[in-house]
Design brief:
By secondary structure, the chain is an alpha+beta fold. Helices cover 26% and strands 20% of the residues. It has one domain. The N terminus is likely disordered.
Length: 354
């Protein structure tokens, strides 16, 4: 009987211990700490963090910057900044997706595609018609440092600069040799995107799309269909779109950009549910910021928003726009200084680092 009691006690201890252990691959804090951003700020959840006047001014500034690439006096980024990646990686030992060193011929071909000697070859307003990856150079192929070094290799593709969300105004300043890529600038950064992911905008489209009433998507993976029920793109948190009509009780009727057969932008209407978006600017309160932060909880890390996942800096410019707050950029000088100290220095300068 004594042995049976001892065995029962041991079994009980093991069962309790097993229940207390985190799930395989799970960090214990994720099980034991509240996964709610609102649980930690200690503030009145509905107390404004900005005065109405200050937020109104910030919203106006956000709209100017957001639509800035369409301004007639928009100045292109200088050549040395536009081709920073070509300069930085041309004489480095870089690796491909097969973990092997890239032949110098590979970089020569990429440089040929980039046509540095002809930059800038255009200055043309355009818009992203889908979520797209902005690349440091005109190639879909990745560049890695030595896989044998700690913290290098997949997923740290140094050609991946950022993600550009559908509906983002852009300025095209160069086109690649093959015509597959265009070099564009947005309100926050610049780089190369596939030409099929953008559409050219004329004054009629820009006047319609540059609306004072805007909505911001407040959660990820929202399928956007036009009023003919045709799927167009997936909206993620931070997607900003103009209102087409006064909102009804169930949905916002917005304008979305569609690329026609000639590559030009056409504005069509789409409905986005009120549960998926809100009028801008959202109230600048702890409750709002906690809601936006909570919408991103649990997202797997993805370098530069590649693989349609989050990245370290990405939440800054996806979560701030809805409230019309601003987020500081990365000065170009920081990039070049960091490049001399660390291999993890591939994020392109932002518009602030011209």
């Amino acid at each position: 009987m004594k042995h049976i009691c001892n065995a029962f006690c041991l079994l009980s201890i093991l069962l309790v211990s097993a229940c207390a252990m985190p799930r395989p691959g799970m960090i214990r804090d994720l099980d034991t700490l509240p996964q709610d951003a609102g649980a930690y700020h200690g503030l009145d959840a509905d107390a404004p963090l900005l005065s109405p006047g200050l937020q109104a001014g910030m919203y106006a500034r956000f709209l100017r910057k957001h639509y800035g690439p369409w301004a007639p006096d928009f100045q292109p980024v200088k050549e040395d900044a536009a081709y920073w990646a070509l300069t930085h990686y041309s004489n480095k030992e870089i690796f491909g997706q097969n973990t092997l060193k890239r032949n110098p011929e590979w970089m020569r071909m990429v440089a040929e595609e980039a046509r540095k000697d002809a930059y800038p070859s255009m200055s043309r307003p355009c818009i992203a018609v889908t979520n797209t990856s902005m690349r440091s150079l005109p190639t879909r192929e990745p560049v890695f440092w030595d896989f044998r070094k700690p913290g290098e290799g997949f997923p740290f593709d140094y050609m991946q600069n950022s993600q550009v969300l559908a509906g983002t105004p852009l300025r095209a300043e160069h086109i690649s040799k093959s015509g597959q890529w265009v070099f564009v600038e947005s309100r926050f950064t610049f780089g190369w995107v596939p030409v099929r992911d953008i559409a050219w905008t004329d004054s009629e489209f820009m006047n319609a799309f540059n609306a004072p009433a805007m909505i911001a998507v407040t959660r990820d993976e929202v399928p956007v269909r036009d009023i003919q029920d045709r799927f167009r793109f997936t909206a993620n948190i931070g997607t900003v779109l103009p209102l087409a009509q006064r909102p009804d009780n169930g949905c916002f009727k917005t304008l979305i950009p569609v690329r026609d057969a000639q590559g030009n932008a056409v504005a069509v209407e789409a409905d986005i549910c009120r549960t998926d978006a809100e009028l801008m600017p959202l109230p600048a309160t702890p409750r709002t910021f906690a809601k936006l932060a909570n919408a991103m909880l649990g997202r797997p890390y993805g370098w530069g928003a590649c693989m349609k996942t989050g990245t370290a800096p990405q939440p800054s410019w996806t979560s701030w726009p809805p409230s019309a707050s601003t987020c500081p950029g990365i000065p170009a000088s920081n990039i070049t200084k960091e490049a001399s100290r660390s291999s993890r220095a591939s994020v392109a300068p932002t518009r602030n680092g011209r």
